[in-house]
Amino acid sequence: MTALVVARSAAALELIAAARTLAGSTGPALLVSYSTAVIPELASPPPFDRWLDGTLEGVVDLTAQLAPYHPQEWRPADTELPLLRRLLSAAWTPDVDELWVEDLDDPPAATLARIFDSAPIHLASPGLLAYGPPGTRRPQPVQGRVVRTWYRPLVPGLVPVPAGEATAVPLPVVPRSARTGPVLVLGADLSGAGLLEPDAEIGLHSQLLAAAGRQAVAFSPHPATAPAQRWRIERAATAAGVRLTTVTGRPDALITALAPRLVVGCASGALLRVRAGGNPVRGIGAAELLSGMSPYHHRDRIPLTIADAVLRPDGGYERPDRLQALVDSVAYVMRPQSAPELREATAEFLSGLDEPEWRRYFRKHRVERLGLPVPAERAVQPRWAAAGRAGRPR
Amino acid sequence: MGGPVAPRVSVVVPGRDCSAYLGDALCSLAGQFGDPRALEVIYVDDGSLDGSAELAESHAGEIPGLVVLRNRQPAGVSAARNRGLAAARGRLLGFLDADDWLAPGQVPVLADALDRLGCDFVRTDVVHVTGRGRTLVRAPESRRGRVLAPRESILPVTANSMVDHPTVAAGLYRRELWECGLLRFDEDLPSAEDRHLMWRLHLAADSFAVLGSPGVCYRRGVGGSLTQADDGRRLGYLVAYQRIWTMVEHDPDAPALAAKLVQTVLALTAQHLSRAEGLSAETRTRMVSGAAELLARFPAEVCRPLVTGLDGARRDVLSGVLAGLPREWR
Prior knowledge:
heterodimer; A: alpha/beta; five-stranded parallel sheet; 12 strands; 38% helix; globular; B: alpha/beta; four-stranded mixed sheet; 11 strands
C-alpha cells in the first residue's frame, strides 16, 4: 500500500511530509512531480532530491512522461481511465491507497484523482490558495473523497474559508536574517498565472527591483519565469540603474546565504512565510492586481487579498478577527454557495466599510446581485440592505 | 569562445527585433550538451532596433559557445542564416528561430542519430505551442529511424510529404551539405526560403532519416506575422516554386515532380487567399495574377487534371486564379 504524492513545489512537498507525519500516514510514498510553468522545458526543476532517502521511495517525472504535451492539459476521456489505472499501477506502484496533492482543481492532480478513483485524498496547498474556496466546483466523486485539507498558518489567527476540516501544519523555523546584506527581491510568475500580460509583468518587476532604492539587489526570479522574460526584467532594471545580481535557491536558503536587509515581493505565500520568521518584508503590486483581476471569482483573489491587507503600508488589518472578516466576506462574494453561512457576517462587514476600502476589495455589480450592502445604497436604504433581499425596491 | 577543436554542432539562430523571446531560444540551447564545448550557438542579428543583439551579448555568460554577428541593415532571414552558416565551425549544423525553443537533450539525440546512421541529414516532428496548448505536427514520413533516399519522400502529390514539412529547425545537417552548396538559403526569397531549401535537399542529397524526437517547439502567434503594410513578402512562395520548377524542369522525374509542385502552388494559394486576417488589395491582386502566371508555365497535361480535379470549395477560393489560366485547362 503506497501513497501517491502529487506535487510541483518544494514547499508543497515539505508540507505534505509534515502533514503525513501528523496524520500517522507512515507507509511508503511515491512522488509524482509535475510542472505548471507555461514552458516546462525552460523552467527550473524543483529540488526534490533531498526528500528521497527519508520519506519517499522514488520520483516519477510526470512532465517528462506526458511530453511533448503540457501536464496541465492532460484530460483523458472517461473511457481511458480503467486502462490508465492498470498501466500506472503496473508502472509506478500497485495498490495506491492515498493521494496527497498540492492542488485538486487542475490536471494533472485532478486527472490522477479521476484515475485512482477509490483512494482518499489529502489536499495540502502550501501557500495562500489554501485560504480560499476552490476555483471551480469539483465533481462530487472527487470532492467526496477529500478527507482532510492541510495548510500553513502564514498569518497568525487567520483560518481558511470555509472553516471546516482544515488543519494547520506549523511552519518549520524560518531563518532570521542578519540584515547586513542586499535587498532580496522575490520574483513572481504572474503571466503564467494569467494575472498580467508579459509586458506588464516586466513593469511590475521593475517596481519590485526599484524598491531597493540605491541598495544592491539580489533578484530571485520565480522558477517558472521563462529565460526570455527574465532577460527582459534584468535589462529593464539595469537600464534603470538598479545594481542587480540574479540568484537562485529557495527563500529560506537565500536568507541564510545573503542576510538580506529587506525582502521584497508581490503577494506570495513565500513573502508571508519570510515575514513569519521575523524578517522585514515589503509587498508591492497586490492592490493593482486586485483591481484588474477578472473574473471576480478568480481563485487568486483570496491570496492577493490576504497579502494586500497584511502588507499594505497604511495597515488596518492587524487584528486577526478583522482580517478574517475581510477574507470571509471576499470568499462569500466570490462563491456564495461555498459558505452560505457567511452571508450575515459579510453583510455586516460590508456595511462597516467606507467607499475607498470597499472598492479595494469588492465589485459593486457582484455585491448588488447578491443583495448585499453597497456604499451608495447605504444612505438611501439601510433597512432594505440589512434585510438582505435581492433587487432594488420599486 | 571555442578553442582549436571544432565544436560537434553549430546552431544558427537568425533574429530581428526578437528580444521578447530570444532568451528562451538561446537558453534552451545552452544546456544541450554536458560538455559546453560541443555546441556553438551563432546568433545573427538582422538589423534589430530593439536591442536584441545587446541583450544576447549581455547574457553571453549564460550561453557557452555564443557568437553574436550583426547585420547593420536587415538583410532577410535567408542572408542571416547563410551568414551564420559561413561562420559556423561545427561538423553538424542546425537552426533555431529566435522565437522558438528546444527541449533539453534534443540536439544530442539528433547528433547521435546522424553519426550513427551516417546519412546527410535528419528531420524530426515539431510541436506547435499556443500558451499551454500543444499540437504535434509529425514529419510526413512514416518510415522512421532508418536511412532513406530523399527523392522518395517528395511524392505523393495529393498528401503531405517531407517537402511540405519546411521547419528547418526540425533537423540537423552535415557540414558537407553547406560546403557543396546544397544547404544554403536563397537570399532573393522573402518567404518560403525554407520550402525551397527542402526541395533542393530532397532532390540532390544522397540520404536522410526521420526521427520522432519532438523536441522542437514552434511558438505560434508571433514572428512572421506580417502587417498588411508589408504582406507583399507573402508572395515569396511564387518565386520559390518558380525556381524549384527551374531545377526540375529537365529532370527525368519531371512530370511527377511537376504535379507535386502544381498541387502545392494551388494549395498554398488557396490557403493564403482564405486567411482570416486577409491580404492587402494590392498583394491579393499580385498573388492571383502571379499564381496564374506560374501555373501556366507547367506542362498543360500536368496542370489540367489537377485544376479540373479541384473540389468546389477550393475552386471558389481560386476562381480569380483559374480565370487567368488558358481556357482549355479549366
